[in-house]
Design a protein that fits this description.
The chain is mainly alpha-helical. The protein is built from seven helices and two strands.
Length: 153
């Protein structure tokens, strides 16, 4: 996961998350990467979840591994991405569902989320395996049923 440090950047207008926490860093990071807002960044990566070519490879020639860029970015966004990712639990595309589940698992581990869920996050069995989509979808839906009220306004 790539973290961006904010040095010398103009201060963004302060907003808050559903629990009243400041969301300045998300706004600053979105602007630094060329997104008009954190929501624009979320939608940009959501649109790429189904793109099988939107990946990178790391680990060198001997141990190549796939980096699922859209899922990793959405997971890194954390709390603001959670309700958007939940909508993808109904996807009929096995690739998109696999990545949405993975991104939701990562996003639900955001400290802003776990602070409100008593440390509970989406604990998937085997990740990034389309054969596990049904079981992982059930786990994610169960978690969302317990905690969806935190995103209702």
């Amino acid at each position: 996961m790539l973290l961006v440090a904010c040095t010398g950047a103009p201060q963004a207008e302060s907003s808050t998350t559903a629990d009243g926490a400041p969301q300045e860093s998300a706004t600053i990071e979105a602007a630094e990467k060329g997104f008009a807002s954190p929501d624009d960044k979320i939608h940009y990566y959501l649109e790429r979840l189904s793109d099988r070519n939107y990946t990178e490879t790391y680990g060198g020639e001997e141990h190549p591994r796939t980096w699922y860029t859209a899922a990793e970015e959405l997971g890194g966004i954390g709390e603001p991405a959670v309700p958007h990712l939940v909508q993808y639990l109904d996807s009929d595309d096995p690739w998109e569902l696999k990545l949405a589940l993975y991104a939701l698992m990562l996003a639900s581990q955001d400290p802003a989320v776990t602070a409100r869920t008593d440390g509970d996050y989406v604990r998937l069995g085997t990740v990034l395996d389309e054969n596990e989509n049904a079981a992982n979808r059930a786990i994610a839906r169960d978690w969302w049923q317990r905690w969806s009220h935190l995103w209702q306004e």
